[in-house]
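Chapter summary example.
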Amino acid sequence: MKHAVNYLFFIENMFSEYYTIGRYPVQGEFMVMAYEALNNDLTINDELINKLQVMVSTTEMVQSYFFIWDDLADNSTERGGKPCWHLLDDTGFIAFSDACIMRSFINEIIRQNFNGEMCANILSVYDKVYFVSSVGQYMEVEISRSRNYDNYNMELLTMLNNLKSSFYSIKSPLLLALALSNKLNKASYDVVDDVGLEIGALIQYHNDLLDFYNEKGAINVCKSSTDIQEGKFTWVATAFLENCNSEQRRIFLENFGSADPEKVKRIIEVYDEVDITKLYKQEQQKCFDAFNKKVSKLPKNSIPSPEFFKSFQNLIRYYSQDTKNFMYDKN
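The structure predicted for these 331 residues follows.
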């Protein structure tokens, strides 16, 4: 039995590293930044360094876990400049099992390095990441599959992305920092949950924009994009539908959701006609305005503090600027 467990951990290390190693650790960076802001008088020792390393590693492994599922669902062929995990020899749909094992492996690493309430709180955050992200992914698939483009509106998209993206990309690193600092409670949770909503959604909007640029051939995000071909419910499609004229909408309905290269090209053309980049910049500003309004209403003794959120905004702004920086697929 012992040899079987050791072999399992060896195999797990192989596919947990496949997407994780070599990628810029964005969520890990957010978590460490928040932890430092929450603990002014840090005593750096081996125990703290180990805990931070464990948190950064597992946070990034959670992203890799979702990459396996996302690439399977999207029939993607490439990520990070190499074949998707499910396309490797003798993998295929076994990737589903690999992802399930990986999730358990992440939890086991947490249990081996933390205990008591801190361990329970960290696992609770991860469990919610798995749950809400899966619900968001399911909603996206069902809405996209319905081909009812009347549902492609910003209100529904914001609700979906609060589940699919906001909690994982923005809220969970901050909640994990609070858990590691023994400051996670209902009050601090509610602050993060409220303030992180709009900028969390913005991260997904930015990711959708990058997929559009990638489809145009303007950039290479190291991930094959199929948003147009699959008729996916994305910010780009939604922004277009809310800003197009009747003729542009007719072209959209005739061509969206097809793998025909000519139809994909036609969709890209009408997207450019409404100036998707300009619309994104307007959306970005709206998200930051809503974020700043919420931060301005926080009491000075809020945890996290208003000062932290203001500095955090600079980091988010850096990652969400057009195509200059990549949130998830940076080499």
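To summarize the output: Confidence is low (pLDDT under 50) at residues 1-11.
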